[in-house]
Design goal:
Helix content: 55-70%
Oligomer: single chain
Strand content: 15-25%
Structural class: alpha+beta
Order of helices and strands: HHHEEEEEHHEEHHHHEEEHHH
Radius of gyration: 67 Å
Distance between the termini: 120 Å
Length: 448
């Protein structure tokens, strides 16, 4: 978790420092081990030369069995302050002479006896010990054994190690400085890219560009690709803004109110027509529940539409508001959830449809009356022909029976009925608009 919060510069610096420390540690360890072994070998080699020289000087003492002379030969080693003890052994391995440095209380103790064929031995075990056979002209006279203090060797090794650690510390410091400078040089362009990306994410203009890194390196390629991506992003953003503005202009110019309802039932889109229809501004509608911005019963209709249209498109339905307005609504689901509702004011259209239906009924009644009038006119016309014949015949009878009073009353009744039939025919023709009405003043009392 802590590592994930580290910056790229810190990680790069730690990686460089880790690799440097690992390489320095491995290299210095190998050098130190090799140098310590070299110093030990040099010390043993120097003691071997010392032992060989002392052994050559003790050949005569061993040859003549002169132990005092052997002691004198070994006593010459006191000039070497680090030699703590020495011993000579004859050809049988018996102790012949010995030497111990004054004050060397902790000196290694020489063996009490050696084997007759004791070979070469060089080792450092607390003290540096060298054991060499004494050979002169291919004849073995004995063995010399020398023990020397390793204090000087330890100091030399310690001095070497201190020097090595000092050099290592300086190299670590230099590597840290180098790693920091290198990390800054490498991460500065990357941090610039990250800063530009962060500013764009926070809403800055997409026309921002990362600084151009000179050279053909990977960072330059990354910066170039990042700027190309930003250019493409700016182009896409302009296209999206243009499309959004165009769609918004189309929505606001539409006479139909367009309302977007989100999944939680709040308003996400509110067109200018919706403002005019519901008398609620876009600022007051956006983010509010649809029930708070649309009046009843349109609220219930919109709520039902929103619930149904979440899965499938909903056909147009009409709802009448309490103020007499009639709204037609249609909804369709949105891909990301929610619905878009189109609301149109169809009050005038409904009124026009009702007026048209009433006029159609009136026209139908007029057409019926016209048909009745035509029928009445036809009947009156035919009846008029019949009455004409009856009237003519009645008038002939009336003329021929002028002197006969017994039938004159019958004939007068026929003429009177024919005249009333003619009047009826004229009224029917007047109803059918085929003859003018013969209007005249009458005495209602006399008629009654």
């Amino acid at each position: 978790m802590a590592r994930s919060r580290m910056s790229i510069r810190t990680r790069l610096t730690l990686i460089i420092m880790g690799v440097t420390l690992g390489c320095l540690g491995l290299g210095f360890t190998l050098v130190a081990l090799r140098q310590v072994d070299s110093l030990r070998d040099q010390r043993l080699a120097a003691m071997s030369v010392m032992a060989e020289t002392t052994g050559d000087a003790a050949v005569s003492s061993l040859s003549f069995k002169d132990a005092a002379d052997g002691h004198d030969v070994l006593a010459r080693l006191k000039t070497f302050g680090d030699v703590e003890a020495a011993a000579l052994y004859d050809e049988k391995g018996e102790l012949f002479a010995s030497y111990k440095h004054e004050g060397a209380l902790g000196a290694a103790q020489w063996p009490a006896r050696l084997s007759a064929d004791a070979g070469v031995e060089r080792r450092i075990d607390g003290d540096a010990i060298v054991q060499l056979p004494i050979v002169y002209e291919n004849q073995r006279y004995g063995t010399i054994w020398i023990a020397s203090s390793t204090d000087a060797l330890s100091k030399e090794i310690d001095s070497f190690l201190v020097t090595l650690l000092t050099i290592g510390a300086l190299l670590v410091i230099l590597s840290g400085v180098f790693a920091t400078l290198l990390g800054r040089r490498i991460t500065r362009p990357i941090l610039s890219l990250a800063d530009v990306a962060r500013r764009i994410t926070k809403g800055s203009d997409t026309s921002l560009r990362a600084p151009v890194v000179p050279g053909p390196g990977e960072i330059a390629t990354l910066a170039s690709g990042f700027n190309a991506m930003l250019a493409k992003l700016e182009q896409r953003e302009q296209e999206v803004v243009s499309s959004r503005d165009t769609i918004r202009a189309v929505i606001d110019s539409s006479p139909v109110a367009i309302i977007g309802i989100q999944k939680d039932g709040t308003v996400g889109l509110w067109s200018a027509a919706a403002t005019a229809l519901f008398s609620t501004t876009e600022v007051d509608a956006i983010g509010k529940p649809i029930a708070a911005v649309a009046p009843d019963p349109a609220v219930m209709a919109l709520t039902r539409l929103w619930a149904r249209a979440a899965s499938e498109p909903v056909g147009s339905i009409e709802v009448e508001l309490t103020d007499g307005l009639c709204l037609a609504m249609q909804a369709a689901p949105l891909p990301g959830g929610g619905v878009v509702v189109a609301v149109a004011d169809v009050t005038e259209r409904r009124r026009a449809a009702e007026a048209l239906a009433e006029r159609a009924q009136q026209l139908q009644r007029v057409q019926k009356m016209e048909v009745v009038g035509r029928l009445a006119g036809g009947v009156a016309h035919d009846f008029n022909h019949l009455i004409t014949v009856v009237m003519a015949a009645a008038q002939m009878l009336q003329w021929r029976t002028a002197g006969r009073g017994d039938v004159r009353g019958y004939v007068d009744n026929i003429v009177d009925a024919a005249q009333r039939g003619a009047a009826l025919s004229r009224r029917l023709l007047a109803f059918s608009r085929q003859q003018a009405v013969d209007a005249k003043a009458v005495d209602t009392r006399a008629v009654l």
